[in-house]
TrEMBL record:
It comes from the Bacteria. Residues 34-77 form the DZANK-type domain. This is DZANK-type domain-containing protein.
């Protein structure tokens, strides 16, 4: 019986590790690169901490705050910055 407990424990530890690695990857994806100085800034920042460049602007279609270096608005799928 102790072998079974060991196997169950190692499976649990494996899943905890996988979740931990996933969490770390999500953190990396939360950063954006400043278009002016290439500094990595956190997703929630309004301005670059290095050069004070504005990182966000309002989507012209849905008015949500989106990052300037994103090509498409993730909220409405509109191509950013195209006003035709
Ligand atoms: Zn910058
Ligand atoms: Zn939008």
């Amino acid at each position: 019986m102790p072998t079974l407990i060991c196997v169950i424990l190692s499976i649990l530890i494996y899943f905890v590790m996988v979740e931990h690695i996933k969490g770390n990857n999500e953190k990396l994806e939360e950063s954006v690169t400043c278009s002016k100085c290439n500094h990595e800034a956190h997703n929630s920042f309004e301005f670059c901490p290095e050069c004070n460049e504005k990182l966000k602007e309002a989507c012209h279609a849905c008015q949500k705050e989106i990052h300037r270096n994103w090509r498409y608005c993730p909220y409405c799928g509109d191509v950013k910055g195209v006003e035709e």
